[in-house]
Design goal:
Distance between the termini: 17 Å
Radius of gyration: 18 Å
CATH architecture: 3-Layer(aba) Sandwich
Structural class: alpha/beta
Strand order of the largest sheet: 3-2-1-4-5-9-7
Number of strands: 9
Mean pLDDT: 95
Order of helices and strands: EHEHEHEHEHEHEEE
Number of helices: 6
Strand content: 25-35%
Low-confidence stretches: none
Helix content: 10-25%
Largest sheet: 7 strands, mixed
Number of domains: 1
CATH topology: Rossmann fold
């Protein structure tokens, strides 16, 4: 059994951070060694980085049921900045449920914020003609929300809860914040698709501080 399986691993930064901060959300019952970490991605361009870190890379396109069914068991599953890359929310839900089914102790999902509210979400930006860069990318067809993820967890638990010795704990926490519109990832609503950062050539942005700060990404941690 793997200690960690990371979906959409890229260079393996999620595994790096998980190994450093696992005790923040999970019981540190055993150490996690690199050779027991599986990094899954549909691209092979990161294999050199992953191998250098001691992780096992695997090429797998998770856009089909057969690939999802082939996922191995692991103590923990990660999916950081991945669930927004799949075609639909229904497919994101499939991946969340598969990760829950294959993990022994729990899952850690990290979601870029697509939350529309005007308190800590993009709604506060859109009210003044701005948005996040990542809310209009070709590579982000699915604006997967905290509520979507929690609903998928609840649906999975309603089907599999009797198999668990303990209940399911879901913890949602901010993973990143911004305090003002000077953030490079804040651009005008009509900025071109796939804009990755603000540049002065786009024009002068409204200057606004946010109290409380806006949340740029969220942790959704599920513990068994």
């Amino acid at each position: 059994m793997w200690d960690v399986v990371d979906l959409g691993a890229k260079q393996g930064y999620a595994i790096d951070e998980f190994r450093r901060k696992r005790e923040t959300f999970f019981d540190a019952e055993f150490s996690i060694t690199p050779e027991k970490c599986l990094a899954i991605d549909h691209k092979t361009e990161y294999w050199e980085d992953l191998t250098r870190s001691g992780y096992k890379p695997q090429e797998l396109d998770l856009a089909n049921d057969e690939a999802i069914a082939s996922l191995p068991e692991a103590n923990y599953y990660l999916a950081w900045h991945f669930l927004e890359h799949v075609p639909t929310k229904e497919w994101s839900n499939k991946l969340v449920k598969a990760a829950l089914s294959k993990s022994r102790y729990g899952c850690w999902f990290r979601l870029p914020s697509f939350e529309p509210d005007e308190v800590s979400g993009e709604g506060a930006l859109r009210a003044i003609g701005l948005r996040w860069t990542w809310s209009h990318w070709v590579g982000h067809p699915t604006h997967y929300l905290i509520e979507d993820c929690k609903n998928a967890v609840n649906e999975w638990f309603s089907e599999h809860g009797e198999k668990l010795e303990r209940g399911v704990q879901v913890r949602v926490t901010p993973a990143g914040r911004t305090w003002n519109t000077h953030d490079e990832h804040v651009v005008f609503i009509d900025a071109p698709i796939d804009t990755t950062e603000y540049s002065p050539e786009m024009g002068k942005k409204p200057s606004r501080n946010f109290t409380p700060p806006l949340i740029t990404e969220w942790n959704v941690v599920v513990r068994f």
